[in-house]
Amino acid sequence: MAETAVKNPVMDSLEAENAKALKKLRKRQKRKGDIEKARVKKSKGKHINGSLAGDIAIFILLCLLGIFMVFPLYYSIVQSLKPISELFVFPPKLYVLQPTGENFSNLFKVAGNLWVPFSRYVFNSVFVTVVITIMHVFVVCCCAYCLSKCRFPGYNFLNQLIVISMLFTSTATWIMQFVIMAKMGMINTYWALILPNVATSMGLYLMRQNMSTINDAVIDAAKVDGAGAFRTCWQVVIPNQKPAIATLIIFVFQGAWNIQGGALVYKEDLKTLPTIMTQLAASGIARQGIIYASAVVLMIPPLVIFLIAQSNVMETMANSGMKD
Amino acid sequence: MAKAKEQTAVKPINTESKGAYTWHLIKQNKACYLMMLPFFALFTFFTVIPVVMSLPLGLTSFNLVQFPRYIGLTNFYSLFVNDDVFLIAIKNTLIFAIFTGPFSYVLSFILAWLINEMNPVLKVVFTFIFYAPSMTPSAYVIWQLVFSGDSYGYLNSVLMDLGIINSAKQWLTDVTYMMTVVIIVQLWMSMGAGFLALRAGFQGIDTALYEAGAIEGIQNRFQELFTITIPAMGPSLLFAAVLAISGAFTVGTVGQNLCGLPSTGYAVHTVMNHATDYGSIRYEMGYASAICFVLFVVMIVTNQVIRKVLSKYSD
């Protein structure tokens, strides 16, 4: 073109800027189209600000890390199903050729020869876990509602106390708890296993954080309708807190199920499953198969509870319509 | 009410009405106090009293049978001056705290974020996979096999096959490796409650925020993460941080189960192990209380610092 021969820097830069702006506009329009499309596809859960390549890269990364995380669990299941002839094969195999329930039946045989019937340990564990879970959920829900939605003298103090005490999990304080329970004569009773684990502040903090997201208008409405604090808590707030409660149950169940309690309870018929499993496992290499079998028996209940509660979390999250 | 009225005669009007008002509020919220009673009664017995008692008991010599005998600061003096093992324990605890605290915190945040980018089914699967180890302490057995010291230990045999090492390494009893091994296992187990809280935090963010962000010109995941997600996640971030601190300073059971108590050369001996040693093996409760008290103070200080830092990012 003839004009281009005459250099006009101002016009050039203007044109360039124009072109840039046009490009930007087009990109923006295209993006808006993308967003519209994403909105339409939203039911499929497609992420708006991500690319497919990114998704694949993340997926691969997560798979690699996931293998590292899940390997010990997978392998203890495989080991527990191996017959004696395969257990000591070297190099070890990552799969089992002839799966057998031998280890499990041996476990129960050994456990059946114990001084106290095996069913007693199972009962102890289940009893302690269920009691702790129910008491914890009830006590924590009541308290969390008050700490998040009532304004009363001492409100700030109690809230701060809870936050600080989150640091002092029972791993940190169990020795001091032991002193107190010894002085109160609680050692060697179910109470020694149950009571210290009911009022843990982590669950309370979690519930409080979740309940404080509830709109005050809902609670005021309940109050106007004549509901007292207790009724507001259990009929209005709690039904909207299913995800949080599911999470609460996961935590408390898992903690309660794995209570070792060896130092707190030494009467044979009060011991829980983990304590007795550790004792069996301590019996050394001759009982390899039994060790894995007991590890598997112990790890299944928390995993199952988690899977059940987790699906509940997802479900309630999708249906939760209580947003401003 | 009567008490407040008595005060009217002596005190200036302002204080009187304030006191009466507080009393009025207390009466009005009677139901709340009742609802909180069961929790706080148990909480006081099993958390507040143990923590508060650690100082007075730390000043005594106490064996659970005889009445505690006051011995002043002797316990604390011997802790820091005479007890070499305690100093090793402090050093180890700090190393563990640095590696398993911040590191596992960042790791669980990144993992929670990446998982959140997946589709709903994969979210459940991955959350399950990463959370599973912290639910199953019984899976230690496998780590003992992997790090077993003879040439049949899995790690040893793999490394020897590959020609990286010539002879079997004593992973669990050789002072040079013990720390690393325990840190690895600790990290493996560290995707616990904090990780779940972060997952829930990501999940709870209103998708309308992302749509708005996209219209405003956010181009990729990273921009979205820093401009929308992190500011919207304040509560979960703090929660996970507190749990990370608590977990990091009470490290001990992993080392105890893998390497024994006491471990070779006290290489993975932590403050918590030291307290267990004196508390439940030697029954020197006074000394154990002193150890616990030191631990509690360190945890509270760290917590305050971290909260200050984090509260800048969340409002």
Report the count of strand segments of chain A.
0
Shape of chain A: flat
Any idea what the CATH architecture of the largest domain in chain B is? Answer: Orthogonal Bundle
Mean pLDDT of chain B: 81
Radius of gyration of chain A: 29 Å
Domains of chain A (count): 2
C-alpha end-to-end distance of chain A: 61 Å
Radius of gyration of chain B: 26 Å
Overview of this structure, please?
The complex is a heterodimer of chains A (324) and B (315). Chain A is built from 14 helices and no strands. Chain A has 324 residues and is an all-alpha fold. Chain A is flat. In chain A, helix 4 (102-112) crosses helix 14, helix 5 crosses helix 11 (229-237) and helix 9 runs antiparallel to helix 12. Chain A has two domains: 66-100, no CATH class; 106-319, Orthogonal Bundle (MetI-like fold), CATH 1.10.3720.10. By secondary structure, chain B is mainly alpha-helical. Chain B folds into two domains: 1-58, no CATH class; 79-311, Orthogonal Bundle (MetI-like fold). In chain B, 74% of the residues lie in helices and 1% in strands. Chain B has 17 helices and two strands. A two-stranded antiparallel ribbon of chain B has the order 1-2. In chain B, strand 1 (60-61) and strand 2 form a beta hairpin. In chain B, helix 5 (84-100) runs parallel beside helix 6. The longest helix of chain B has 29 residues, at 30-58. Chain B is flat. Classes of the chains: A mainly alpha (324), B mainly alpha (315). The interface between A and B is large, with 107 and 106 residues.
